[in-house]
Amino acid sequence: MRRRPVGGVLPEQMEKGTVKNHNSRVCCLASLSALFWFFLLYFHFVVLGEQTPPRKIGNDIGDVKRPPKDSNVRQVQSPQKNYPFIKAMRTAENKSDPCGGRYIYVHDLPSRFNEDMLKECKSLSLWTNMCKFTTNAGLGPPLENVEGVFSDTGWYATNQFVVDVIFSNRMKQYDCLTNDSSIAAAIFVPFYAGFDIARYLWGYNISMRDAASLDLVDWLMKRPEWGIMNGRDHFLVAGRITWDFRRLTEEESDWGNKLLFLPAAKNMSMLVVESSPWNANDFGIPYPTYFHPAKDADVFIWQDRMRQLERKWLFSFAGAPRPDNPKSIRGQIIEQCKRSKVGKLLECDFGESKCHSPSSIMQMFQSSLFCLQPQGDSYTRRSAFDSILAGCIPVFFHPGSAYTQYTWHLPKNYTKYSVFIPEDDIRKRNISIEERLRQIPPEQVKIMREEVISLIPRLVYADPRSKLETLKDAFDVAVQAIIDKVTNLRKDIIAGHTNDNFIEENSWKYALLEEGQRDVGPHEWDPFFSKPKDGSGDSSDSSEAAKKSWKNEQRDHS
């Protein structure tokens, strides 16, 4: 019989109790150690981390491309903030989604902002019945190819001011539309801004001219989509020049409406056929031409045909003089055309004119090596795009006629596809255009013409009722540019980048910056865009030019 130890505890039980107490102490020490390291790491990463400034994307602010002509990026303090557009940004990371980063949300506007205007098409112009020009999804009536100047299909008598309708109808065919605005890369506002102002330009007070614009802005600002970026992800299209929407005063005699001067509109991007060099909220897109291909083959066949044409004229010009404008060089250009044996002139005036005939215009451009494109009443002309469509190398006399306007659609190196002769060379020095053009070697002319012909797909608007297979047209280029602009702006907001050095009056310079550049300085074109010190001049002159342009649009090929 085993003897029981004192206290009734067996040796085996004492050994077990000792081990158990030892294990408890080890566990306690391990827990304390883990707790110590937890508080140490929490203090380091959370408490101290909040005091560390957000890391920038790239090595320097210059590593992030500034969105051209955008001055509304605000400073953001924390990169961890849950921005309302983060979901949209993340769609671009989904490589299995072909629409990732490309979704467009379209506002369902009340019909008074678009379709109702088409129902009242007779009131859209004081001198022109626009009803026929709004048919065929905005392309106008088909053109017959009687003289063999066009292709058999795809050609229409398109009015130069109908981009509102063409663009909106093309948007209906866009392959990445969404009903979920939270994943949208940009938001489209299908307001027919050009048609709205066109019907009220003559004989109406400023209250009537501004009414629809104010109504639109009020409608948009009440929508939840507006609050995502206060409208900076919104864009709209107007098939007119910017000066129709930039009334400077509240005087009844002043021109146009004030849409682009409304605070809300300054956040949006407006695509116009002529933009302002001194403002940040509008962007130039091409005037519509007569050609609207339904498939890629239509474009390829036309390009091949333009390559094979024999061009008997060295240069040509279609347009009317501007005797009431002392700055215009059109009179001198017309005189040079008349004197030259290798120059062709299609002179426009009131009444019946071949300038109203698309076939006469295109036939002349197709038979010319160079097409002269001086300013009209404003910087730009539809004729420039018609000439490029005909494979004719454009000759510009002011950088505002193309180079600072259509930076999304045309190469920044303008010498690849055009000739630049400063206006003063004609106005003051009366240089010979013929001699200047003869100095270009034939081989160089051939290279330039090929560049011009290669630009055709991105400068025409495809038929909205069809869809190109691989080519990107003017619509596609513009939409992608808007998406890039909004995306870059969102990245800047997340990174905390600001545009403190942005000078809106130099907007035209920012559009010419190369990748990675953010600051602008002196430019060779400064004399073309300088403003008088009293602030008057160019803007008001341009508004007056818009008024003259409206009067002359029936006379001239613009």
UniProtKB/TrEMBL annotation:
What GO CC terms are in its UniProt record? Answer: Golgi membrane
Task: List the membrane topology term(s).
Answer: Single-pass type II membrane protein
Q: In this protein, which residues make up the domain named Exostosin GT47?
A: 99-436
Q: Which InterPro entries match?
A: Exostosin, Exostosin_GT47
* Keyword terms of this UniProt record: Glycosyltransferase, Golgi apparatus, Membrane, Signal-anchor, Transferase, Transmembrane, Transmembrane helix
Transmembrane ranges, per UniProt, are 26-47
Record has Transmembrane helix as a keyword: yes
Molecular function terms, GO-annotated: glycosyltransferase activity
What are the Basic and acidic residues biased-composition ranges?
A: 62-72, 521-536, 544-558
Q: Where in the cell is it found?
A: Golgi apparatus membrane
Superkingdom: Eukaryota
Q: Which Pfam families match?
A: Exostosin_GT47
Q: What is its main location?
A: Golgi
Q: Which residue intervals make up region (Disordered)?
A: 56-75, 521-558
Please report which protein family the annotation says this sequence is part of. Belongs to the glycosyltransferase 47 family.
In Swiss-Prot or TrEMBL terms, this protein is called Xyloglucan galactosyltransferase MUR3
State the organism of origin. Senna tora
Lineage here is: Eukaryota, Viridiplantae, Streptophyta, Embryophyta, Tracheophyta
